[in-house]
Design brief:
The protein has helices spanning 12-25, 45-50, 56-59, 116-119, 126-135, 158-172, 195-207, 250-253, 292-310, 357-374; strands at residues 3-8, 29-35, 39-40, 61-62, 71-75, 78-82, 87-90, 94-96, 99-102, 107-109, 121-122, 142-148, 179-184, 210-213, 218-221, 227-229, 234-235, 239-243, 245-247, 277-279, 322-330, 333-340, 348-355. It has 376 residues and is of the alpha/beta class. It has 2 domains: 3-106 and 248-310, FAD/NAD(P)-binding domain, CATH 3.50.50.60; 110-246, FAD/NAD(P)-binding domain, CATH 3.50.50. The two termini are 31 Å apart. The structure holds flavin-adenine dinucleotide. Flavin-adenine dinucleotide binds at residues 9-14, 34-37, 43-44, 46-47, 77-78, 103-105, 124, 154-155, 158, 249, 251, 281-283, 290-293, 295, 325-326.
């Protein structure tokens, strides 16, 4: 009998898990991979789209090219998940699973920040990044703010990256001197687990005259685009690039899988409290940041557990919550931080200085996933 696996969400986590299961037990696998979109894109490609470095079509990879033993992709919107019976309902069909994997990522609650939709902008959704690409050229002078509205948020370095890339963008247009840039972040440092990466970022901000405002969140945007911070401070602003509040998708919140907004999982195997129901990536509260590399790492452990159980064994591969994050430093360079959340008594990160060599490293990171997941 084939193992019926239903994977919800074809992002970083869902793609990695489906690939591993296909490679390991493809002949004995009946895996359905469901996503509402027809293509995948890397989170970091939104920065490229926003600053006009790449066209939208160039960063999208069609799911139709997935051809893996035992895997069927379905472009459908999931409307209900029953973790007790392991039944999934979409707008088109109902699926019954032996093993269910929830990898639906995080959505955004734009209404949680009054004025954000009306007077601000955001680059965390693909459509928001596309919209900004046409708004940025209209900005010629004044105060630009990159600001986080709430934590947790995806890819903790991404606000710092946006500020540094905005600096380069304004320099390239010859208007940097007419503009000021501020960065509002709810942490004390840009990347708390890595003091060295944080130090390098703070130095880069200082060199580029980017004002760093730590330990603050943006609570609201008013009709004059003025920002209200969480301590009541008012920050005049002409261009706001916001990072909206993150939430689990509605269908997950309604499934009974969540506690305090996210899905709790057992770190040893990424199982939820429901038998044979796994959750990986941004939709969980596993304790790592919301980032693709950690979704991928969790997928590896969940896949190992599914394969071991199917073969009547036990998975003894521990989840160390480790991953390497690339940081766009501007001026054609990229840095890297290798972070490990669970191996030691506290999270720690090793910083690799920004260089042109790491630009190639990051490109390989993307192309290797594209080959592994899509055969391209
Ligand atoms: C600007 C920016 C830069 C980033 N840079 C990096 C980086 O450099 N490195 C890094 O590791 N991470 C980065 N990230 C974060 C990364 O993109 C996410 O953390 C990662 O994609 C999470 O993987 P996931 O599998 O948990 O969820 P996702 O990749 O978000 O996948 C979830 C999937 O579920 C689907 N889905 C949701 N609801 C439904 C539904 N009801 N029905 C059907 N399908 C549904 C979605 O369409 C989506 O494809 C960045 C993010 C942003 C916004």
């Amino acid at each position: 009998m084939k193992l019926r696996v239903v994977v919800l969400g074809a992002g970083f986590g869902g793609l990695e898990l489906s690939t591993i299961l296909s490679d390991a037990i493809g002949g004995r696998l009946d895996l359905t991979l469901i996503d509402q979109n027809d293509s995948f894109f890397f989170g970091f490609s939104k920065l490229d789209v926003m600053f006009g470095h790449k066209q939208s079509d160039a960063v999208k990879i069609a799911y139709s090219s997935i051809k893996k033993p035992g895997v069927t992709f379905r472009k459908e919107t999931i409307t209900a998940i029953d973790p007790v019976t392991k039944t999934v309902t979409t707008k088109k069909a109902t699926y019954q699973a032996d093993v269910l994997v929830v990898a639906l990522g995080a959505n955004y609650d734009f209404n949680a920040t009054p004025g954000l939709s009306e007077w601000g902008n955001e680059y965390y959704s693909f459509s928001g990044a596309e919209k900004l690409r046409s708004i940025l050229p209209q900005f010629t002078k004044g105060h630009a703010v990159v600001g986080v509205c709430n934590a947790p948020f995806k890819c903790p370095p991404a606000p710092s990256e946006a500020a540094l890339m905005l600096h380069d963008y304004l320099v390239s247009r010859g208007i940097r001197d007419a503009c000021t840039i501020s960065l509002v972040i709810p942490f004390g440092l840009p990347i708390p687990p890595s003091p060295d990466s944080s130090k390098a970022l703070l130095k880069a901000f200082e060199e580029r005259n980017i004002r760093f405002i730590p330990q603050r969140k943006v609570n609201a945007v008013d009709e004059n685009k003025k920002l209200i911070l969480d301590d009541g401070t008012e920050l005049p602003c002409d261009l706001f690039l916001g990072i909206p509040k993150h939430v689990a998708p509605d269908v997950v919140l309604q499934s009974g899988l969540t506690e305090n907004g996210w899905i709790p999982v057992d770190r040893a195997n990424l199982l939820t409290k429901f038998s044979n129901v796994y959750a990986i990536g941004d939709v969980t509260s596993v304790g790592t940041p919301k980032a693709g590399v950690f979704a991928e790492g969790a997928a590896k452990i969940a896949a190992a557990s599914i394969i071991a159980t199917f073969n009547g064994n036990e998975n003894d591969m521990p989840y160390n919550g480790a991953g390497s994050c690339y940081i766009e430093f501007g001026k054609g360079t990229v840095a890297r931080v290798d972070v490990d959340f669970f191996s030691g008594p506290k999270p720690f990160g090793i910083h690799h200085e920004a260089s042109e060599a790491l630009v190639i490293d990051k490109a390989y990171f993307g192309s290797s996933r594209k080959t592994r997941w899509f055969g391209k």
